[in-house]
Amino acid sequence: MMKFNDLDILDEIKKAVSEMGFKNTTPIQKEAIPLGLKGRDITAQAQTGSGKTLAYSIPILQKIFIADKSPQAIILCPTRELCIQVAGEIEKLAKYIKKFKVLAVYGGQPIGKQTRVLKKGVHVVVGTPGRVIDHIQRGNLELIGIESVVLDEADEMLDMGFREDIETILKNTPRQRQTLLFSATIPQEIKKIAKNYQKNPKFIKIKSNKKTTPKITQYSFRTNPKYKFKDLCRLLEAYDVTSALIFCNTKKGVDFVFKNLKKNDYSSDALHGDMTQKLRDKVMNRFRNGNVNYLVATDVAARGLDISNLDVIVNYDVPQNFDDYVHRIGRTARAGNAGFAFTLVTSRDSFLFENIKRKSNVKIIEKDLPTDKEMNALKNQIILDKVKNSIKNDNLDDYLKIIKKNSSKEFTVDEMAAGLLKMMREN
Ligand code: ADP
Ligand code: MG
User: Fold this and answer.
1) 174: helix, coil or strand?
2) Do 387 and 366 share a structural domain?
3) Alpha carbon of 29 to ligand 2 centroid (Å)
4) In angstroms, rounded to a whole number, what is the distance separating the alpha carbons of residues 404 and 95?
5) Residue with CA nearest ligand 1 atom 20
6) How far apart are CA 315 and CA 154, in angstroms?
7) Sheet strand arrangement including 268-271
C-alpha cells in the first residue's frame, strides 16, 4: 500500500488529491507514478477503472513550468467525452497550482473557440488525435516545448483508426520527450509503437486479481423481442434501479428505448454518435448531476466514460463480442465499489451470449424476471424498506404526534399505514 502523501510531489497536488477523496494509490498508480516522476517512458496495461488518469497526470503536472505559457504536454484520448473527463480530472488535480491551464480539444466544437484559448496560452492539451493534428497544421499548437505525450486508451485509438494521426504527432514532437502509453490491452500494434517511439520503456502490467477486479454482480434474463421493452421496465422496477446506463447495439435501438422510456414517464436521455457535441455535453452533464435517471447509449458514445455513482449497467441488446461486454460493464463498480450488470437475452442472441458467458471468468447468473404477482410484492417491499429505514434514521416525533392524534377505534394505526401504502403505490 502506498499513500499519495508519501510521494515526492508538490504539496499543492497532495492537497488536491486529498480533497478528491483519495489517500492510497491504486496498484497502477503505485507502479507508474514514481517511474513517471523520474522521467521514464512507460507502457502500462491495467483494466478500466483502475485509476490510470491520475497515474499519468500526476507526473506530468509535477514537471509543468507555470511561467512558460506554451503547451508542455499533450494527452491523446479516443473520444471527446474522454477528453473532457481527463481535462476535468487534471483541473481538479491542479486546483492549487496557480495560473495552471489545461484545455480539451476535440472535433464537433467550433475550432475558433479552442484556437482563442490556445493562443492565450495553456500548459496541457487533452485532445482527440484528429483535432490535435488540425491545430498543429493551423499553427495554433506549438510543439517545440512539448515534454510529454500520453496515449490514453491506446488500444481504443488504434481500433478507431487513429494510428497514422498518432504517429504524425509523435514524429513531430521533440525526441527527448517523455512518452507514456496507457491501455487496457496491449496488442501487437501497440508494442510496435512502443518500440518505435519510446526510449527504453518500462513495461507495467497490473494483473486484474480479485482485489482490483470490481465487484460486479452479473445477471442475465431471458426475454423475447415482443416483450423486451416491457421486461426492461420490469427489471428497472424490480431492482429499484434509480440510475443506469442502458446499452443498445444501434442508434435506432437507442432511439427506440429512449422514446419509449420517455413515453412511460421514466426520466431518461439518449447518447449516440450522431448527436451534436453541444447536445452530447448537455446530456452527459444532466446524467452526471443526477438530473436524469437513465441514459441510453451506444458503445462508441460511452467508451471510457467515468460516471460516479453508476450502480447498474443494462445490456438491452447483447453486445457483439466479449470485449464490448467487458467495456460496457466496466462502467459500473469503479474503483472498488459494487455494481450490477443486467443483460436481456432473446433466443436469437443465445449463441452470442453463450460465447460471452464462456469467456467470462465471473459467473453470469441466469435469473427469472419477476411475475406480475412478484412485482406487486416487490414494489410493496421497496416502499416498506424505505419506511423502515426512515424509522431507523429520521426523527419522526412530529409525524408520530399527528398519527396519534388521528387514530381512533374507527381508524386504527394499522389501517392508516395501509392507506398510506396504497397512496404511495398509486402515486
Ligand atoms: P481508468 O482510466 O483506469 O479507467 P480512471 O482514471 O477513470 O480509471 O479512474 C476510475 C475511478 O477511480 C475514478 O472515479 C477516479 O476518480 C477513481 N480513483 C482514481 N484514483 C483513485 C484512488 N487512488 N483511490 C480511489 N479512487 C480513485
Ligand atoms: Mg482512463
Assistant:
1) coil
2) no
3) 12
4) 54
5) 51
6) 25
7) 268-271, 294-297, 244-247, 312-315, 338-345, 215-222, 365-367
Q: Does ligand 1 have an atom closer than 6 angstroms to the CB of 318?
A: no
CA-to-CA distance for 329 and 214, rounded, in angstroms?
Answer: 10
Give long-range contacts, CB 8 A cutoff, 24+ apart: 11-16: 12/94, 12/95, 12/96, 12/97, 13/58, 13/61, 13/62, 13/93, 13/94, 13/96, 13/97, 15/95, 15/96, 16/92, 16/93, 16/94, 16/95, 16/96
- Write out pLDDT tens, residues 138-185: 999 999 999 999 999 998 888 888 999 999 999 999 999 999 999 988
- Ligand 1 pocket mutation pick from 3, 9, 20, 22 by most atoms within 8 angstroms of CB: 22
Residues 351 and 411 in one domain: no
- Cβ of 53 less than 6 Å from ligand 1: yes
Q: Is any atom of ligand 1 closer than 6 Å to the C-beta of 54?
A: yes
Nearest CA, atom 21, ligand 1:
51
Please write the tens of the pLDDT for every residue from 383-406.
Answer: 888 898 888 888 899 999 998 888
Determine how β-strand 365-367 pairs with β-strand 215-222: parallel
**DSSP reduced 3-state for 47:** coil
Q: What is the pTM of this model?
A: 0.62
What is the CA(49)–ligand 2 centre distance, in A?
7
Q: Which of 205, 240, 255 is the last residue of a domain?
A: 205
Query: Does residue 234 form part of some domain?
Result: yes
Structural domain includes residue 211: no
CA nearest ligand 1 atom 18, residue: 51
Cell (9 digits) for 201: 520503456
- Of 25, 54, 183, 327, the one to substitute when testing ligand 1's pocket (max ligand atoms within 8 A of C-beta) is 54
Tell which one of 79, 86, 306 to mutate to probe ligand 1, the residue whose CB is within 8 A of the most ligand atoms. 306
In a domain, 210, yes or no: no
Residue 316 C-alpha cell reads as 438491452
Atom 9 of ligand 1, residue of closest alpha carbon: 51
The span from the CA of 220 to the CA of 325, in Å, is 12
